[in-house]
Design a protein that fits this description.
2 copies of one chain form a homodimer. Chain A has 144 residues and is mainly alpha-helical. The first copy, chain A, has one domain (11-138): Winged helix-like DNA-binding domain superfamily/Winged helix DNA-binding domain (Arc Repressor Mutant, subunit A). Helices cover 58% and strands 7% of the residues of chain A. Chain A has 8 helices and 2 strands. In chain A, strands 1-2 form a two-stranded antiparallel ribbon. At the A-B interface, helix 1, helix 2 and helix 6 of A face helix 1, helix 2 and helix 6 of B. The structure holds a DNA duplex (30 and 30 nucleotides). Chains A, B: Residues 10-109 form the HTH hxlR-type domain. Chains A, B: It holds the Pfam family HxlR. Chains A, B: This is Helix-turn-helix transcriptional regulator. Chains A, B: Keywords: DNA-binding, Transcription, Transcription regulation.
Chain lengths: 144, 144
Amino acid sequence: MKNKVNRSGCPISSMLDIFGDKWSLLIIRDMVFSDKNTYGDFLKSDEKIATNILAARLLTLEESGVIQKLEHPGSKAKVLYMLTEKGIDLLPVLLEIQFWADKHLTVLPEIKVFLKEAKKDREKFIKTLSRQLKGRLSSTGNGK
Amino acid sequence: MKNKVNRSGCPISSMLDIFGDKWSLLIIRDMVFSDKNTYGDFLKSDEKIATNILAARLLTLEESGVIQKLEHPGSKAKVLYMLTEKGIDLLPVLLEIQFWADKHLTVLPEIKVFLKEAKKDREKFIKTLSRQLKGRLSSTGNGK
DNA sequence: AAATTTGCTTGCGAATTGCAAGTGCAAATG
DNA sequence: CATTTGCACTTGCAATTCGCAAGCAAATTT
């Protein structure tokens, strides 16, 4: 859980020191909303991240303590990437980004339906999904 | 209000197409929380943005419709940068980022106090500050 | 045993970043 | 009213980062 830069004491700036690029948050998105958890999974996402960029981002995300590498239960050739609690706690940020995009950008109808649902009871949605994600966490022996 | 890229139909990805760098959100932060509204104001912020980068970001933010350029009431030499409604609506995103940072990163005590206050009644805080920001908007003749 | 999958690493040209200096107009100053 | 200062940028250029393509070793499948 390394702390590299830190342009200022501002929390937004500090958050951007980790996530201020076009890819890092998408990896978290895939883990939160699409249950992706291997290198190959992330490579396959719609935005087509380059393999070297993916490797670099996974490393910094791990160094920042938002994800962790674990041995994959199904195969030694695979690596299991999991969110830490720090990573799971980004869910409200991801949700608000989507609510904003839903209002001000072009969003696919299927996603609009999902967001409408999530917005209906925001707190409960966050609590339920967070619990679910943190549940998986504790079953790895790394839960708090 | 230009639409340049669009890596996928995902709302998070689309938001990152605009804000996926280390500077854009900081400009919005300065406008929302520090009442900054001139080129010089933004240059002076703690993170020391380079002048060419600032000019480039202001342009894309304007093209994305989150800020607008207006003539400065006090001086012709100055330019007044203002948030649009689209920009003001980023407040919940900025808040959640800060709540996350408050929990998981190192944050200055004064800011922790501010965030504690904001969190106490999140909805009211957002409504009040949004109204305030949108109020300024309508006094420029560009309010909806 | 050979082919394929998986998680990377390496090379390299292209694009972006960031520092420093410069430019043109407006406003303040002497 | 001539000159300096302030303001909002632009330009040049070196350094870093990005992104495509290829390569690679270990594990797994056929």
